[in-house]
Fold each of these.
Amino acid sequence: MLSIKKTIFYTVFLLSFCLSFLLSLLSQFAYRLAPVSLLAIPLLLFYRIKFNRVFVAYVILAGIIIISGIYNDSSLINILLFLRILVFSFLIYYLTDVTLTPESIAPVMKACVWIAIVQLPIILLQWQIYDFLPLRWRGGALLIDFGSGTFNFKTDYAMSFFLVLVIIFLLFENKRNYFIKNKFIVIVWLSITVLIVNSQIMKFVLLLVFLVFFVAKFHVRNVIFFGIGTLVVGLSLMYFSTNNLVTEDISAFLYRFNSQGNVNTYLSGGYSRGAALRYFASDGFTWLGDGPSAFSDPFTRTLLRGNVGHSFTFFSEVGFLGWIASLVVLFSISFPIRDYKMHITWIRVLIFIAVLFLSFTAQVMNDIAVFFIFCILAKMGELTLAEFENPISGQLKMSVNRK
């Protein structure tokens, strides 16, 4: 029988990773995923909040946001609207922290792998039916943005982030992912999926992950697998491109990633990543920003500046201090302290790098699908090898020799 925390966890899990796109279409794109995190509120009545580094980091970040609001004479409504980001993300972290155990983590990760696998055929189907859908079912999305799999509408970045974190799990957790069969085939399949969708930043992160794997896990067998995998992925992408099954050439991400953009475009509300970075490094640098919610309206989803990304939003609205404090939150989740020690592993380093890069193109703390899988992988990193399913007996058990 499922406990209340597991019921809530799997409900949020399904709504985040499996049903979001369908619910978006059925609701005529009125569906919003972030409030789903509020389902975790009842758990506060049964499980205490841990006074740990993550909680302290959240408190510090909230304090900076409030100070920024007071300093910039922001309205109480604007301050509260910005603080909602902290509430949504903390509830997801809290839900993950109180629910996942050595017994439950294996089936959760197995479900994540299967969800990752089905994204490719769903995306290809979405692109093929796009031209036949009435305009009201497209929700204003261009063809290139319509393929987000089972994830929320126009959030192919969330789907790509999910896939990259699953790939990290398959590559770097050999002693914990033994229940996944044919890992090489799965990794190649997921890599193809990441490379054909529109999220440019995650393509770069994927290449970085494989570079780290190639260096950190250097072995003749891995070199052979890496070469074969690269060949298979390359031929697959050529096939998809030749048969018009994808929306853009794979080399397009190099151009778009290096695009410099125009500062005026950013200041007028347009998306220009390079221009935003140049602006913040010069005239736009502030310690406390221009005030919470100064350049965005969460109700209408309109932007007065092109802050299409967590880092740009925090830097411009709550300043350098607020942005750094938000990174401390992400860092604290990625690198928990166990037995008074911070254990650095490749999987923790890579999930932090992945979320850091994505923060420049997506609202990583306000997108529940992104933050949820991030917390799941981080929580998995806390669990010791002895707490995982015994690969010989196949039975889940906990170590009786805990220190």
Amino acid sequence: MWRYFVIIGLVVSLTSCGAKKIKLGKVETHSYQSIGNGVAGITLKLYENNTFKFDLKSIPQPESKEKSIKISEIGTYTSEGNWRVLNFKDPKFSLEAIFDPQFGDASYYKVIDKENVRVNTSKEMLPIWGIVCEKE
């Protein structure tokens, strides 16, 4: 009988040590979506509980053997006036490649480091990965 208590205690201990799962909010405060293009579908949604979801899915070019690139990240953000600092926890991609300053000047966004980018949510569009994403 005591073995069951030990096993249950071990399972509870191991599951409580894991990283906290980010739970997205219910109400969107800001939302950007790519307009028609042949390169990728992109969405960036910010929620009232200071969480966000970023999705990017590339469209392989005809007659190429490229596979689609898929990025789906959930993170948290902080507010600084019209700016939101998005925190991508251990992203599997380069923020500088997605939020490339070549496609948008510093009034749109600024990559802070490998996990954080400042985004100006007062803008009606954001050029993400070189693609125009309109505010909804």
Amino acid sequence: MEKPSLEKKDERKIVNEMAQSIISSKPHGLKSVHKHVNLSRRGFVEVWQGWFHAKTIPQLEVDLITVYEEQDLEPFIMATEVKYFKQKRGRNFYEGLQQILAFGLFGFDALSLLHIFPRESEDDYIQASTKATQEIIERFRLPVTFIAGKYLRKGQIRCYFPVQLGENSADYVMSWTKNLCSEKRNPAVRDQEVVKRRKTLKVLLKIPA
């Protein structure tokens, strides 16, 4: 088995700390928080085998899932992919786009991509990287909400994109992201096949039908 990279280990730690921050704060409307959810298991196995016609199915893990209750009582399910840029070399500005777009096929209402940089990262490097990422999203009209910032300390993030914010807790950043996602929803949820997968997703997350 391939050993996880240093970036991947740091990503898991960051996701764990973010999840704990969100759970501790209990923001309004939040119903549940899930981390490291593997979509290649349980009810989705038949989906994968139907596509690939093989026993070997791809590994697709959602870093963070937050579930909110909306006015119509239908849950708002947001998937977040986290990528940590520990070093300038070895990672590309488009990291995570392939994963977050794949998540859209499983019935998430919103898709968010979070690029995290170390606190010692130069501002020019962050701005150049985020500008390139956002250009892809805008030019191809991807239904992805993109956030970028520095991870300063446990559960604390300073956002650089789409606007610059001071140091804030992860729960504030995710609530802010949810508001942005509400204006850019996943269009795939209107497809009948995706609606069926969403039902499986709700079972996996223990969301009442």
Amino acid sequence: MNWKEFLKPDWRKIVLMFIFVMLTSIIKNLGILVRTEIIDYYGFPFPFYGKAGLFEPPQPYRTFFDPIALIGNIIILYLLSCLIVWIYKKVKKK
């Protein structure tokens, strides 16, 4: 298998990537229960969107969006899904 085949999109790789995106969102939301601040970041391994502020009402939220981090997350999660599909194919052949 060459790099072109390894990186070629198919339905398994795309579905796996979306599952990883959903799992990282769920894992992120579990951590907010133990904090004293509202910190709401999206993205793994790089946070690409978020807002933060204190629980007290007069404090405004600070928000940010980083498109480079979003692209980095998509690339990393897609490469991870390619690797998993490749390993699955190797094991299935044996």
